[in-house]
Write a structure and sequence with these properties.
Elements lengths: L4 H9 L3 H15 L3 H19 L8 H12 L1
Length: about 70
Amino acid sequence: MSATVEELEAEVLRLPAVLRARLVEKLIASLDVEPDVENAWAEEVEKREGEIENGTVTLLPGAEALSRLRAEIQ
């Protein structure tokens, strides 16, 4: 059985907001799939994890990082 876009839309709109939000995230993610970009992000994540593990970088608590960013913007 094949549903039309209108039927799918009506069915989705009957879902609770949290499930509609999850569906939207998955649909958007399905549009953004570019292997080169995904590979570049994976490499960047590995690089940053390595920097954290070997002590090359110093981590800040979230509140402090936001405070510093706000100070730079003002």
